[in-house]
């Protein structure tokens, strides 16, 4: 803190000076003294009481001696001496300043006294002159009073005659104004005469009033014509409305009619024509390089919008405070634009067409915004463009979904001439692969054009567009999976895009299911990773999700879904093929009476049908599924051979036993022995390979055959017929199924089950069995060559 010479702080000095002046100029010293009692207890006394009017010197000294030592007292003495000196100096300066002010005031009073000395004489002279002028004025007024009254009377008469003459001349003057189209002058004349017509129009000036009203009617019609005329300037039309208001014409009716005319313009405006956007946008040019639309429809549209904007401007000037109505009308124009755009999007347009439509809309928005900025059409257009771009992206993915569906659905129908049947599924699969890869790439290129254009609307929606494309691909693969599941009867979806795809009228073929299974694997392993990379390049430097959520299409989220569907389709294919074979087997075993079956002479034709089914399955599977890298369950001397030898031993024993009961005992013994054999794994895990699928179908078919056998009762001939068919299958099915041991085991189980259900289970002799089998093999080789 800054300190003065005496060692007293400046703020302390100022406070003491203020207290000093207050005590000096205080009107009542006793009141301030009474505020502090003198007998205040020393317990509450402080050294600061020296600055109050209730200062007690003895109490202060006692307190000072109690609180300070000798050095402190000496220091306090020096400080107080300095303060006393400063106070004396300040008081002296205060007296000097007041003295100077008193001297200055005295001098001012002397000068005023000297200046007023001669003023009284001048005021007396002025009063005498004013009195003289007043007396002469009274004399003039007295002499001219009678003439002034006469002149004023004549003047009033003259004015009245002028008004009467004006009323009589009004019809003629109105006709002249009509001929010269001076409607403003005519309205001014008529409104000036209106008070007189209201007062005397039904008596003295009846004819003049009638003629004037007829003229005003003509003027009113002329002014209405000017208001509705598009050739008139906006200023002229606004003046016409103002003149009509002065004539007390109901202008609100005009306002309604003009607004209806503007509304009718929107009704008549055709925005659905493709010619409007033809030639208007080149996606390879920037907006500054684009030429003016050259189609006749586009030129006519621009001219009509300019006329509409001009009409809006005129309406706004003519009818004040009409901005809310006009804003609603302008927003309806933008809304109608985007409704037409939505219809075009639903009809499958490309990005160039969408860009042309958005550019046309933005041009109209700018034209309207110049005359009606209150409508905020830019924000309105942005909201509608938000919906339009999103609908376009959704529509593009819907087209892609239908394109893939149409490509894959060729596997549902019989191939045309010139296309081999065994390659029809492969053709459909290749078409589906091309559709998903090339279609996705084309879609991204199409979407890229939306980002590359320097359009104000699309620039504001750039980040959102990137997010919509990412989300679109994610939803696309989910919808694709849902459609496939729905197609195969395994799903239930309410997706609009999926429901819009036409479902095949016939039941889905097994070949198409196999194509879907292989296609799902392709999508999971190839398509999604590739599209993810392309999408990352597409989304670089944009999108709202990049800042916190990353890409919307996450392979780790989508691939398991597609993979699961692929497995579902593969199991469904096996189920469908197995069910078809089961129907064939069921017809075979339910049609004849096996108890009365005749002696077998050849292999039954159902075996040929069964082999034909296996052949068709092999053709379908081999053209789509890959081969297994290694073979499993080849024939060995363990499990499979044990079961096969057991069946052979059973057959030999039955040939040597003439007694049926002994044969049944041997069957029981064989069945008990089977329980103690090493357990064989019949159904292994299904793999996505040719061998695994075919072998699984064969196993399931043989298992179904075994179950059907257990439901029948056979005589000896029936049993021998089954034995012959199974023996023939053993010789032919080894070229079809991979797991020979398990297949032989299942075939032996069929024979065992048949023997268990046979009344007289005596098998054919081996020479006879071999002869019949060998006789059938060449025919089968010709009908079903090994592929």
From TrEMBL:
Residues 625-655 are annotated as: Disordered. Belongs to the VPS51 family. Keywords: Coiled coil, Golgi apparatus, Lipid transport, Protein transport, Transport. Its main location: Golgi. This is Vacuolar protein sorting-associated protein 51 homolog. Residues 637-648 have a biased composition (Low complexity). It is found in: Golgi apparatus, trans-Golgi network. One of its GO terms (biological process) is protein transport. Acts as component of the GARP complex that is involved in retrograde transport from early and late endosomes to the trans-Golgi network (TGN). InterPro entries: Vps51 (IPR014812). Residues 109-136 form a coiled coil. It comes from the Eukaryota. GO terms for cellular component: cytosol; EARP complex; GARP complex; membrane. Component of the Golgi-associated retrograde protein (GARP) complex.
